[in-house]
Amino acid sequence: DRFLRAGGGLAVKRARAILAATVLVAGVSFYGISRISVNDNPVKWFSPRHEIRVADAVLNRHFSGTYMAYLVMGTADGRSDLFKEPAMLEYIDRLDEYLESQGDVGKTTTLSDVVRKVYFELMGGEDREYYAIPESRRAVSQALIQFENSRKPDDLWHLVTPDFTRTSLWIQLKSGDNTDMQTVVDQVEQWIAQNPPPEALDIEWAGLTYINVKWQDKMVAGMRSSLLSSFVVVLIMMMVLFRSPLYGLLAMIPLSATILFIYGLIGLVGKDYDMPVAVLSSLTLGLSVDFAIHFLERTRELVRKYGSWKATIQYMFQEPAMAISRNAIIISIGFTPLLFAPLVPYKTVG
Fold it and tell me: Please, what sign has the CA dihedral across residues 259, 262, 267, 272?
């Protein structure tokens, strides 16, 4: 009670200071928002000590990477047997070497790797000079036939289609962060732009790690449009409810300041914008507006009763303020158990 009464007195005596502080917080929040990095990684939805998270770290420390992406190359004109051409395999080989030299890629597996290894063994398996792409298409075909005969015939079709019009480069990443996958995509696009292929190719991406990137783009765009549209809908509802555009705008101020501050804090502390944070903004929108409605509606009633804002404030910060504060505290306590959940999204909401 004493704290709320003091707050009511400050709201009148320090009105300009409160407005200035709000503007300052908004400015800092906008700066923080500009520093937000949009990134997600489903494995990081588990706490650092969770078995899945620990296993993921160990596997990626000892092996070439557990996050798979696939670069699919296809002929632009539908020509068959294109990926039996030595020049095309050499091109894939150079792209392979470039990717493995980058820090984000642990290993790549391509059709050119198969051809080089088989050709090396056919030539005796000792002289490293023969660990290369054969110079003739006939020698390439022979190496591929030997590979088919020495393994399950279908193994080869994981890397190339039977008509050799499309091939897949397997890319293993040590990180499942969408920003790392996007970096690899940008690197490939830049390299291909600087090193045109011998013949025109259609380039596509596939794999779960790449799907997560596209899903993130959809999620961010979807949540942004949902939040903005919800904001507009709530604003219209407030204007209709209060029968006043001014009061409708006033009801949105604490809501807007809260969301700005949360997003600004996320950017300032360096936390990624991910699915849990996107969901959090919607929760904040729904929770905050209730308190604003309660506060403004009771204020209007008391102003009509006591005649002025200064006379109203001492009553406003008694029973109405106590009800709003208790409501906020109860909701906060209700979400607190989520802090002990094993999944990070629940912790974030908590």
Answer: negative
